[in-house]
Amino acid sequence: MPYDPDRALELLAQTGYDPADEITIYSRQGRIFRDVPLWASVVEMWNEMDVNASLQLMDSDQHREVRRNG
Question: How far apart are the C-alpha atoms of 22 and 12, rounded to whole Å?
Answer without folding.
Answer: 13
